[in-house]
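Attaching the record inline, Q. Sequence:
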Amino acid sequence: MSLTEALLASTYVTILIFVAGLIYVWIKWSGKPLHLRWELYPVPHEPGRTHYGGSFMEEVDWSLSKQSKSLFEELKEMLKEMLFLKRVYIYNRPLWYLTFLFHGGIYMILLWFASLLVNGLAKVYLVGAVADTTFIEYLIIFFGYIGIFATTIGALGLLVKRIIDSSMREYTSRVDYFNLFLILAVLMTGLATLSLDPFFELARKYMISIVSFQITSSVELPPITILHVVLLQLLWIYIPYSKLSHFLGKWFTYHKVLWDDELNIKGGRIEHRVKEIVKGYKIPWSGPHMKKDKSWLENASEVE
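Structure, as predicted:
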């Protein structure tokens, strides 16, 4: 087995580890104890009240009426944050220019991956049905160039800002630097690969080999491209188990902390979870008023 063939085989393993990691993190976070809710308004899913910061609690018998929620309004607000980093734009405009360039570039790279995948599937499984994939190949070039240059400039800018900005440097851990250096290593080897393959011909052939499950491939990759793919695979494996998985955390931050206004009804789901925490959750910290490794109920029963 050649090095390129081994790389193709490891790609499947990388995908499995990445997907399994995301599922593991999602299940782990879903099973966390009930979070202390912020209960700040407006909440996006409140139809007709968001524009003035209102709440269903304005109604006289609010506890008896059924809550009306708008999934569309929730998704719209989430997309503003995910695509345009709305809160960074409002509260930290100087940082926004760099982080938007960085995250926007990542989205372009994801579209580049998607275009490669569509092109590969069309070449392998839609032979005859799709006569011409020229448009998709143009999209690959378009998304690829914008993505890698925008992400590289953004990542370099964020690294420099963390180093020279005293307020950011104070809150930057070694892990944050490691993450940026790892991403930059992938991007720099990607740029070197791009100089050898400016129209992504090798990338298209590599994707065709992946979707056709042809481990034995005629694609021969230069050493720098092999290094790039290895680093990229390591990054994908690393993402679910690192701070880079914060894109999943945002769902829980918004839906389980910021926007969760589900009523705590007697005999309901929330009451059941609260009782579980009071009786079964062992407190991992201690203080003058609390004993470590005891439940809230056990601590409360010892109060004199």
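The chain has a mean pLDDT of 89. The chain has twelve helices and no strands.

More tomorrow.
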